[in-house]
Amino acid sequence: MNDDYGRSLQAALQQRMALQPAVVLLGPRQVGKTTLARWFAQSHPDALFLDLERESDRARLAQPALFLAQHRHRLVVLDEVQTMPELFTALRPEIDAERRPGRFLLLGSASGKLLRQSAESLAGRVAYLELPPLSLREVARDGQDEAALNALWLRGGFPLSFTAQSDADSLLWRGDFIQTFLTRDLPQLGVTIPAETLRRFWRMTAHLHGQLFNASQLGASLGGVSSPTVGRYLDLFVDAMMLRRLEPHFINIGKRLVKSPKVYVRDSGILHCLLNLGSRDDLLAHPVLGASWEGFMIEQIIGAAPGFSEFSFYRTAAGAELDLVVNTGGRLTGYEIKFSDAPKVSKGFWHACEDLGLAQAYVVAPVAEAYPLAENVQVIPACRMR
Fold this sequence. Notes:
Layout lengths: L9 H10 L2 E5 L6 H9 L6 E4 L3 H6 L3 H7 L5 E4 L7 H11 L6 E5 L2 H12 L3 E5 L5 H4 L5 H11 L3 H4 L4 H22 L6 H13 L7 H7 L5 H13 L3 E4 L15 E4 L2 H7 L5 H5 L4 H16 L5 E6 L5 E8 L2 E7 L9 H10 L3 E6 L5 E4 L2 E5 L5
Parallel strand pairs: 1-4, 1-5, 2-3, 3-4, 10-11, 11-13
Antiparallel strand pairs: 6-7, 8-9, 9-10, 12-13
Helix pairs in contact: 4-5, 5-6, 8-14, 10-14, 12-13
């Protein structure tokens, strides 16, 4: 596999940089933020790159107000900006001194903390973009959709994992990534919880991938950890973009609705590594197979949706259920995800479609061609999510 993949976020980054003085590009480490930033900077030959994990670059910002003013005419890219939160207070007056689009590109590896910092200091002066791991539409080549889909599902979308020479090399890379994330990345974000505790929590969420999140049950499995503490662990991994918390969809229809969120490991390759699934055969023989496929396709659908969309799942106590509900400007689209070449839907699916009054519903499955189930319900191939 080659690693020459154009990122679908390129156009959005160009658009935001043409409108706003600063753009915050969020994404986990090793997901390709620096590569994307360097691609953008090709049109700015004098762009200034500073890696804030490098002591020499941090030293240059000892007097940030003076330094930034000296380089007012240049595009300034600040990588791992969450490691110097004090910079946000210096950026605000500098942006106000010359409110010109495209001055700063800030790269960060933690969403929640970084967003809070920048929101307080740079309100109205900054746009936010999230760079997820590689998606199917970024890696599929003409005539190779199925091969790309299978490789992406097994290995996940971190570029160095996806492009590894073999599945075994890919698994080794992901194991090293998990170790580094727990022992270096989280402590750099101020997390003081022991790495082994968080590793156990992460593995447990992998085993419960796609299920309703029960903090009490998980806390008991961790040796009596309180529900609020388990909730904080979840917040850490959600902020670090390693877990997705999918909230339930609420409507006032007089039915008892499920209120707990569902939790997914966002990258399928990381999920498989946490469960020690190194090959496609390992995956196909494991009980997580269906849930893994569900989470993988949910990430593809979310990645392809318009940026202002909202995402949830729907479930009632009586059994009506949809894996994913996408709200785009008030238009609701439902998705049911099945790992089957002859997918069948339950009565609960039809009840959910009726409850929600969906404009359109899809059953996403590894089928060769799309076909209708009803007037506004179609079975569609997974490759259509590209």
